[in-house]
Amino acid sequence: MIQPLAYIHPQARIADNVVIEPFVTIHKDVEIGEGTWVGSNATIMDGARIGKNCRIFPGAVISAPPQDLKYRGEQSTVTVGDNTTIRECVTLNRGTALDKNTTTIGSNCLLMAYVHVAHDCVIGDNVIIANSVQLAGHINVYDYAFIGGTSAVHQFVEIGTHSMISGGSLVRKDVPPFTKAGREPLSYIGINSVGLRRRGYSASTINEIQEIYRIIFLKKYNVTKALDIIEAEFAPTVERDEIINFVSNSQRGIMKGFGI
What we know:
Elements: E1 7-8, E2 13-14, E3 19-20, E4 25-26, E5 30-32, E6 37-38, E7 43-44, E8 48-50, E9 55-56, E10 61-64, E11 77-80, E12 85-86, E13 91-93, E14 102-105, E15 110-111, E16 116-117, E17 122-123, E18 128-129, E19 134-135, E20 140-141, E21 146-147, E22 152-153, E23 158-159, E24 164-165, E25 170-171, E26 179-182, E27 187-191, H1 193-198, H2 203-218, H3 223-233, H4 238-248, E28 256-257
Parallel strand pairs: 1-4, 2-5, 3-6, 4-7, 5-8, 6-9, 7-10, 8-11, 9-12, 10-13, 11-14, 12-15, 13-16, 14-17, 15-18, 16-19, 17-20, 18-21, 19-22, 20-23, 21-24, 22-25, 24-26, 27-28
Antiparallel strand pairs: 26-27
């Protein structure tokens, strides 16, 4: 299962049934869970913690030191959950001591070719990041989010659960949960109704989410006023509360409604 032309440090911890193709390089402080496949010419560096049944394609570099001038060589990690696919030439940088000390990729994710995930990012479960997306440091991407190809995301941005970002976007502000984002500058273009239906959300819940975002993005209230109206007019639900918490806790501010 391990090709003789691969280099694996004798202290790396490789589980059963891992397939390692020729010309792979695996450093000392590495853990790889059972059933994972590592394609030719991938490089897995110190601090990598890779789950079960992952697929790592040729040219990927996992757990390289962060591209951060404040990094001083401290020990840190990259954690990849189970059943995640990392395609060709993806680069995942490990964390820094000044923040989380780790970069985290969840389970059941797909990172397409040439994606870059910088230090201290947290990617949730079931996230899809399309080709050549570039994530700066300290970004949070929540479960089931989708980021379209060649998008660039500013450091410290938050991307909410079940959101969808159009390809080629410049993401400078936070993207609230359940929304679709597009245009330039990045703007609200509706809710991710197709994705929500696929994931079992009822028509009434989808309609309520849409009404909430009409108040936030289309009524031209400021954010504080919009949240006050939502709290007064909508009964508490998981979705309502998630939207309120995300918007009220946004540090960079949320994207705007189109034309606002």
